[in-house]
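Researcher: Next entry in the queue.
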Amino acid sequence: MGVEKLILGTVQMGLEYGINNKSGQIRREDAFEILHVAHASGIDTLDTAEVYGNAHQLIGVFHRQNPNVVFKINTKLPANSTSSQYEERISRYLDELGVHQIETLMFHSYAGFETHAALLPVLEKSKSKGLFKYLGVSLYENSELAEIIRESSVDVIQLPFNVLDNLNQKAGLLEVARSTHKIIHTRTAFLQGLFFAGRTEGVAQELSAELETIEFLASQYGISVESLALGYCLYQPTIDRVLLGVDSVKQLERNIQASRYSLPEAAVHQINTIKVKKTNLLNPAKWPKKHS
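Model: Structure for this entry, 292 residues:
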């Protein structure tokens, strides 16, 4: 439990991203500093994608300039991939990223997995050649999780999970996934920064009661909202890795510090009682465009 469980997201290094991102896309020199600090702190894996702007290329430049600092890479196939392009695309990824093997190759959505399910033998062939270690799928809904659990070809499941999209929302599906030996990665630990934004409008206003509960619990235990939110994710025995994105070295260092806090079991039980009824509010993809 702690920093070794963290995966560093790179979408902010290739695009402007997040409701609470006021600084836009991260500059290359700042991104490199973030990568150096992450590696030195014990974070060994990056999450990226071809559609994250120039994130692949930035990681590759970093690896070539720092040959003694090599991250494991999780990346995602775009929705328009075809079987004839798979191996060529994966080989290009390896070159762009400056690595010999991709740790986890993911479908960017359950819909993408369904669309390309007939092409899985092609990916299995690339996997057997050692081009990537695990095959994964990034999910959004419980219904998708219930379906993907039954797919023997899928090794890794990435899904949203946080103090609002919590165990109460997952209805025991994480335990079922682990029982089928799936590796579980979670994202949206801070709900794209919503936990730190004002509560005067939009999604934050609609979730104001729940956000107030989070702040109250953090105050009750004498910790930051960041420590509460991250501690809740890291506490879960059913979760193998927790994905975080940052905008700065300072933010990364705060997250690393927060990851070292062990949340009391009583706090976990209190968080599990939070139940958001409008579940669409928990999915940033369904937020009004001004929040995306």
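Model: The CA atoms of residues 20 and 197 lie 6 Å apart.
Researcher: Noted, moving on.
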